Amino acid sequence: MGLSLLSGLAQAEMKLNLQEPVTELGHKVYDLHLLMTIVCAVIFVAVFGVMFWSVFVHRKSAGHKAATFHESTTVEILWTIVPVFILLGMAWPATKTILAMRDTSNSDITIKATGYQWKWGYDYLKGDGAGISFVSTLSTPQPQIRNEAEKGADYLLEVDNELVVPVGKKVRILTTANDVIHAWWVPALAVKQDAVPGFIRDTWFRAEKTGTFRGQCAELCGKDHGYMPIVVKVVTEDEYAAWTDGQLKAMAAAADDPDKMYELGEFLPRGEKVFAANCAACHQANGKGLPPAFPPLDGSKVVLGPQDDQINVLLHGRSGTAMAAFGHLSDTEIAAVITYTRNSWGNATGEVIQPSDIKMARE
Amino acid sequence: MAAIPGGADHAHDHAHDHPSGIMRWVTTTNHKDIGSMYLWFSFAMFIVGGIMAMVIRAELFEPGLQVVDPDRFNQMTTLHGLIMVFGAIMPAFVGFANWMIPLMIGASDMAFARMNNWSFWLLPPAAILLTTSLLVPGGAAASGWTLYPPLTVQMGMGMDMAIFAVHILGISSIMGSINIVTTILNMRAPGMTLMKMPLFCWTWLITAYLVIAVMPVLAGAVTMILTDRHFGTSFFNAAGGGDPVLYQHIFWFFGHPEVYIIAIPAFGVVSQVIPAFSRKPLFGYASMVYATSSIAILSFIVWAHHMYTVGMPVAGQLYFMFATMLIAIPTGVKVFNWVATMWRGSLSFETPMLFSIGFLFLFTLGGFSGLVLSMTAVDVQLHDSYYVVAHFHYVMVAGALFSAYAGAYYWLPKWTGHMYDEKLGKLHFWLSLVFFNMTFFVQHFLGLAGMPRRIPDYALQFAEFNMISSIGAFGFGLSQLVFLVVVLKCLKGGEKASAKPWDGAEGLEWTVPSPAPHHTFETPPIIK
After folding, report:
1. Taking CB atoms and an 8 Å cutoff, what residues of chain A touch B155?
2. What is the pLDDT of residues A303-342, one digit of tens each?
3. Best mutation site among A28, A146, A181, A321 for testing chain B: the one with the most B CBs within 10 Å?
4. Where does CATH 1.10.760.10 sit in chain A?
5. For chain A, where do the domains classified as CATH 2.60.40.420 start and end?
6. Contact: B339, A227; criterion CB under 8 Å
């Protein structure tokens, strides 16, 4: 632990200002913040210069006798009017920046970012790469979080699948959420937008240079709010074209046949993968859960009970508890994970749930 | 102002009628007893909420998970917020109001003495609900003190306990406020016109109206969460035709005035203390009253500046930005007035004055970071980051808490009849000042660098500032025990306090003996 801390200290620099922006808008925000801070600092020094002058000069212990004045209409009007003009001076650049910030029209690429407890799903909707769809989950290993291994340089800010976008293109991000409110925040891109379940919001950025930019969910969304980072990889147009090509081919190859009938043995590894990505955060990899909020699945009545009930819980969640709906997973994935839970740890039903069962339950 | 001190001897005749022991406190309708209970209760809650802050800062001392799991961490941040806002700061200022308003306006007691008793005794059950919710299955509410749905719909019964606690605390503060308004408007001594009242009474009159206006709104909001949770309504559920953002609008319609419910009585306290130790009348009394009223009115029309990132129309963002910036004007007037009060005074720096100057300096800093946050485009970067955490702790701790300490040291001689230990008082101030800034100033940098709030673990670039902040927080927490020692010492004995221990102090409260007898102003004083 001590060692990891030391290395942490060595890596970090004491940053005193906003992250260096990589978008035109980010520069505007950076400058606006700097301007505001300087204006405030000047006023602060002026006002408290007067106060501390008084503290040092007008002391009783220095023999200063109190004056008796207690109002002055002229002065009072003056210090009401002057701040009005200072504020007007501040409002002008602030208004211009907001108007630029909110213009999401004419985007080159549109990507939907969906917040899940606790990961991000990305769907490329418009422009090059349309049709690409993946989920982006924290890739920092648990031992690092539990202080059993040295923390990596990008501790908590690394994911399995990065969001890849081309440099110089206007990227419009639509945000929404599956369960609770999340917020999509990448400081260097000067973008933060709440993701509200049941609604679509939007924001945009146009990166000026290539590189990897990291951010985090900014709206408290439950237990693992601190563990759902956002990583945006800005690449050149050629690299982007190669990436989209590869992704689309890989997706076509990996597409599941929804009518396939699976055997238990071949289905379990698939189920374990789905479980690790979606369920293990709460129910734990060993199926013991974190009671009482997150019940164990090992020996669970629901898991060992009627199949339809368990399918129903997965598709629709359980209201009043932390169990979210997982209807966004494919029929094959849901079938695989249910099969996995019914045949893992101490559970040994021997049952195989087929994708067609899920399809029927959805109807 | 001239005054006839009211029947100190008369009080002895009644003393033997009163129940003694614990029943004295359970059944009391005396504004001084109830004021004391409010103050002790708020200090106890301050310690409880403070311990939760220590757990939070211990977990954030270094990266990785060490002290609590993430779910418990979220429960700590939630209860810390709820307890400090509703259990510590608000009751502390109600305690000041109970003790001082009748003494300042020459009234014999509060208008509704029995309701006053009930207002107080509603607080302990609410505190028990909040603290014991940590022990129930699923733990306490873990959604942040703002209780945003749909997250709040997912929680266990700890959430319901928090909702009921908020209901009870709301009822208590509404009753307390009705009492204050009625007392101030009806029970002022003959000749005490509204514009002759001490500014502390003015600030509480305005605050009481804010409380009466917005606490029912909060009660409505949390009740809607309750019915969404248990009775199948969909106020905040899009699938049922509702909208999660609706809650945020309702909550912040309460939440922004709430900021001023906490800050305005604090303004009142320092407006009493600064003139007393400057030996010079408050500068611009009338403009102080108007500025405070303007702040209160503006506080109703700026709520959505807490929600710039929810995706409101750009026109909404612009409106809320302009309206928010306007608040800087009356707030500036107040700061200028306090500085002008000190200007060419005859200043001395006893502990109440030190805390008032600390308030003035740091509250203004919090005001400036508020102005930075009012800029929508900048706020989009800083929203829900540690910059915001730093900002509101400058306003709440260096603002409200420092002012409460200023008031406590200022009136302790009147309450106890003894002078407090000035050396310890000054030590308390300097330790608090240093550790407060160590804790919260660096959090500005964390927010700017991109650290979100309400996370139990963080990336490595945030490590140093978090460690500095945690060390500061432990120091700040321990320093508050100095205050407890000062108060206990002062209760036990010490130099006898005269009726008016501060030579520059003005007001009716200094015309009665110290300690203030059980009954005062049974015959109202005449104000010329």
Report:
1. 322
2. 888 888 899 888 888 877 778 888 888 888 899 999 999 9
3. A181
4. 264-362
5. 109-254
6. no
- B297/A contact by beta carbon, under 8 A: no
In chain A, ranges of CATH 1.10.287 domains: 17-101
Sole residue written with tokens 């022991």: B21
Q: Is A172 helix (H, G, I), strand (E, B) or coil?
A: strand
- CA of B291: which chain A residue's CA is closest? A80
Residue A2 has pLDDT above 50, yes or no: no
- Residue A362: its pLDDT value, please? 85
Whether B80 is catalytic: yes
Residues of B in contact with A8 (CB under 8 A): 62-63, 460, 463
A142 CB neighbours in chain B (<8 A) are none
Burial class (CB in 10 A: 0-12, 13-18, 19+), A149: middle
Query: Do strands A171-177 and A182-186 pair parallel, antiparallel, or not at all (unpaired)?
Result: unpaired
Total-model pTM: 0.89
Q: Architecture of domain A264-362 in CATH?
A: Orthogonal Bundle (1.10)
Which secondary structure element, helix H or strand E, spans residue A215, and what is its range?
Answer: strand A211-217
Please report the sign of the dihedral spanned by the C-alpha atoms of residue A58, residue A64, residue A69, residue A75.
Answer: negative
Catalytic (active site) residue B25: no
Task: Provide the 8-state DSSP code for B460.
Answer: G
User: Per residue in B248-290, pLDDT tens?
Assistant: 999 999 999 999 999 999 999 999 999 999 999 999 999 999 9
If you ran DSSP here, which 8-state letter would residue B85 be given?
I
Distance from CA of A139 to the nearest CA of B (A): 13
CA neighbor of B256 nearest in space, from B424, B451, B98, B392: B392
Greatest alpha-carbon span in chain B: 69
At A187-246, the pLDDT tens digits run 999 999 999 999 999 999 999 999 999 999 999 999 999 999 999 999 999 999 999 999
What is the spatial distance between Cα B509 and Cα B499, in angstroms, rounded to a whole number? 9
Cβ-defined contact of B458 to A193 (cutoff 8 Å):
no
pLDDT at B12 over 70: no
d(CA A18, CA A39): 17
Active site residue B454: no
Provide the pLDDT confidence category of residue B5 given band limits of 50, 70 and 90: very low
Chain A partners of B62 at a C-beta cutoff of 8 Å?
1, 5, 8
d(CA B206, nearest CA chain A) in Å: 21
Are B239 and A198 a contacting pair at CB < 8 A? yes
**CA A304 – CA B75 distance, rounded (Å):** 32
- Cα-to-chain-centroid distance, residue B334: 18
Q: How far is B342 from chain A (nearest CA, A)?
A: 7
Q: Which of B79, B147, B309 has the highest number of chain A CBs within 10 A, making it the mutation to test binding with A?
A: B309
CB contact under 8 A, B154 and A322: yes
Residue window 103-132, chain B: list those with CB within 8 Å of chain A: none
* Residue range A109-254 in CATH 2.60.40.420: yes
B314 at interface of A, judged by CB pairs closer than 8 A: yes
Asked whether the CA dihedral A106, A109, A115, A118 is positive or negative, the reply is negative
Is B495 among the residues known to form the active site? no
HEC profile for B117-164? HHHHHCHHHHHHHHHHHHHCCCCECCCCCCCCCCHHHHCCHHHHHHHH
pLDDT in tens, B443-454: 999 999 999 999
The mean of the pLDDT values for chain A is 90
Assess if CATH 1.10.287 describes domain A17-101.
yes
Give the integer Cα–Cα distance in Å for A329 and B383.
32
- Supply φ then ψ for residue A31, to 5 degrees: -65, -40
Name chain A contacts of B138, Cβ cutoff 8 Å.
292-293
